[in-house]
Amino acid sequence: MKTAVRDPIQLCRLLDLPTQYESGAAAAARQFPVFAPLEFIRRMQPGDPQDPLLRQVLPLAAELQQVSGFSQDAVQDAAATVGPGLIHKYAGRALMVTTGVCAAHCRYCFRRHFPYAELPSRDNAWQALVTSIQEDESIEEVILSGGDPLTIDDARLEELVTRLSEIKHVRRLRVHTRLPVLIPQRVTAALVAWLRGTRLVPVVVVHINHPAEIDDAVSDALARLVDAGIPTLNQAVLLRGVNDNEEALVDLCRMLADRRVLPYYLHQLDRVEGAAHFEVPVRVGLQLIDRLRARLPGYAVPRYVQDVPGDAGKRVLA
After folding, report:
1. What value does the mean pLDDT take over residues 23-27?
2. Do residues 140 and 36 share a domain?
3. Are 254 and 298 in a shared domain?
4. Would residue 71 count as lying in a domain?
5. What is the pTM of this model?
6. Are 143 and 94 a contacting pair, CB within 8 Å?
């Protein structure tokens, strides 16, 4: 993460992009900074501004356009927040925003405007959240999210999980992360050990949008999780110019299935301010799912879902 690219001009020049992209990248990055690890950048095609991996992290002038229907809190996290960093939106599950740090700044991120500065400081980061979970006996699953929880060191994560495991009514631990994809060497023996060393049932949910994201190092990282007996799922976001075509989605689902990772969700884009240029019409998403069902076994077809504020869970579109 220390060697990640943080300068939009540097990103453009590393990928040999036409100079016309530099001004728009610089302007958009002032609103939402660039952060892209070299491991991810090396999988991109130099000279191609339409590269599906580059599009996920390259700031564009289009992000600065105000589009009706797009807001800073697209999924209404604020309304479901029961304490700083604790979101209780769905029955039986609570989500901990453990950190504001990610291994990449995805330009479509629905939490790009989240008030991370309001999270508790390091010294007392999690005690109040753990106490809240302990006091609510309806919570049987805790989701570690962010940011990305795996940007936190293993010792602190193991300490947190140990405290959660002492709460009798909590049964499962879910970790949402892009680290195994963006910086695959993060999946260490220590990480696997604390995931397997708790009485809680661990589930890891990774986030892969395009088959080009999966190289040998990513495959090895995913295998380390699966071989340890940790259920590993993938959720993708349907993104214009990234994966809004049949072949990309078919190849992605096949590659995930071959690596024993379940294609879990394909999300309709959350309508967050700055991401309108990524939106794909729902009718197109429905057509794509129909084509996937015609070509793939049922277990390899993700559920096409949308986060609709107020619903009891993700709304299944197909």
Report:
1. 98
2. no
3. yes
4. no
5. 0.97
6. yes
